[in-house]
């Protein structure tokens, strides 16, 4: 009989824990998506109020605003403040459990503090996987749509595309160099173009043209009023009015603005990083920071969940207000530290990989310390 009663108690305990796990996971995820929806709605209203004059001036319809812009605005907003939403969600509903003495009752029922953390980490892992998927594929696609709309309908962005790049000198491939005296980003037309190929230190080919332009449909370049020399064997000289050439030079990627890096998927970003590294381009750190950030962000979801749980599980005077105040202070300091280290990485004073992971490592230590000394 005693063995039977023991097995029955164990089964009841397992059932209780599974119900508790489901309860916490559902509360965590529902609070997260509610906070995301609420704050996104507020941000849309603020953004609309700020840009309404541009939309009216450029004849953007209500349908275009909804289906060509704001439907893609929400994933972009999610990518910026995902960690903050996670932290607020954990603090909010865990604080309510603590103030209602539910956590005390759970611990008194024989559930360990470490065991209580498990459903939090399961829910955080779900959000971390979602974050990785979103950052890798969905958000770049949405950013591309959002940027395209802004370029067409928001004043200032269209004009920003039209300025000239002067004295562009880059390596396109190993031993292949390009020089452009002047290049217009709006029409992809350049002037005083030179292309040189080297075999070691020996010049093997040179093409000079007064004007060259990009064909967006074929992805090829047309040079006009050109002179072409081939130095392999007997030197050959060719002059002509115009001809099409193929070179590894995409003006959209080559003159990519720093704030538009997010339009590329991780696979495309890796290809751009490889090409820009080969060309010896400056500011390659911007691309590397974005690449490493997409991997580090899901881990920060787990870390901030640990910190939020350790803070909010304590019943304190002031209730949720105290928890939210202290927790938000830590969350914003996490975001600020990330932006600070990114700035150092962009300036070349810090390795991009190190810059991206410093906040995670530091706040993981803080989270473990808070968990260690949280009342149990």
Structure description:
The chain is of the alpha+beta class. It folds into two domains: 2-156 and 286-373, no CATH class; 186-254, no CATH class. The protein is built from ten helices and six strands, in the order αααααββββββααααα. The protein has helices at 2-57, 62-99, 102-108, 113-153, 157-160, 251-254, 266-279, 284-312, 320-346, 352-373; strands spanning 164-173, 176-184, 189-199, 202-215, 220-230, 236-245. The protein has a six-stranded antiparallel beta sheet with strand order 1-2-3-4-5-6. α4 packs antiparallel against α8 (284-312). The longest helix is centred in the N-terminal third of the chain and has 56 residues, at 2-57. It is elongated and about 90 Å long. The two termini are 34 Å apart. The relative contact order is 0.11.
Order of secondary-structure elements: HHHHHEEEEEEHHHHH
Shape: elongated
Q: Classify the beta-strand content into a percent band.
A: 15-25%
CA-based gyration radius:
28 Å
Describe the largest sheet: 6 strands, antiparallel
Number of domains: 2
Q: Helicity, in percent? A: 55-70%
Overall average residue pLDDT: 84
In DSSP terms (H or I, runs of 4 or more residues), the helix count works out at: 10
What strand line-up does the widest sheet have?
A: 1-2-3-4-5-6
Estimated structural class: alpha+beta
How many E strands? 6
* N-to-C span: 34 Å
Stretches where pLDDT is under 50 for at least 5 consecutive residues are 5-9, 157-162
């Amino acid at each position: 009989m005693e063995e039977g009663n023991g097995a029955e108690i164990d089964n009841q305990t397992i059932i209780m824990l599974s119900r508790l796990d489901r309860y916490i996971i559902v509360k965590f995820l529902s609070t997260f998506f509610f906070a995301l929806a609420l704050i996104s709605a507020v941000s849309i209203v603020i953004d609309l109020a700020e840009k309404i004059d541009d939309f009216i001036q450029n004849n953007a319809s209500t349908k275009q605003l909804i289906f060509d812009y704001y439907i893609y605005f929400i994933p972009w907003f999610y990518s910026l403040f995902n960690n903050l939403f996670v932290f607020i969600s954990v603090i909010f509903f865990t604080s309510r459990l603590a103030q209602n003495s539910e956590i005390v009752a759970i611990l008194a029922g024989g559930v360990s503090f470490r065991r209580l953390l498990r459903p939090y980490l399961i829910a955080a892992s779900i959000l971390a996987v979602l974050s990785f998927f979103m950052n890798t594929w969905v958000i770049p696609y949405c950013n591309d749509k959002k940027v395209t709309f802004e370029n067409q309908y928001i004043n200032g962005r269209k004009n920003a595309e039209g300025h000239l790049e002067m004295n562009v000198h880059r390596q396109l491939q190993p031993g292949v160099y390009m020089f452009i005296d002047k290049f217009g980003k709006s029409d992809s037309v350049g002037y005083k173009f030179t292309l040189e190929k080297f075999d070691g230190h020996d010049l093997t080919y040179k093409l000079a043209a007064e004007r060259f332009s990009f064909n967006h449909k074929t992805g090829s370049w047309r040079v006009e009023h050109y002179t072409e020399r081939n130095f392999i064997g007997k030197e050959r000289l060719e002059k002509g009015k115009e001809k099409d050439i193929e070179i590894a030079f995409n003006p959209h990627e080559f003159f990519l603005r720093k704030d538009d890096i997010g339009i590329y998927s991780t696979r495309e970003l890796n290809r751009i990083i490889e090409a820009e590294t080969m060309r010896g381009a400056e500011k390659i750190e911007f691309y590397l920071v974005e690449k490493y950030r997409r991997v580090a962000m899901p881990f920060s979801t787990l870390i901030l969940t640990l910190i939020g749980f350790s803070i909010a599980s304590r019943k304190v005077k002031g209730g949720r207000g105290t928890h939210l105040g202290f927790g938000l202070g830590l969350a914003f300091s996490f975001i600020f530290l990330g932006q600070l280290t990114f700035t150092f990485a962009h300036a070349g004073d810090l390795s991009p990989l190190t810059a991206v992971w410093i906040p995670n490592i530091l706040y993981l230590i803080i989270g473990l310390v808070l968990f260690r000394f949280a009342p149990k």
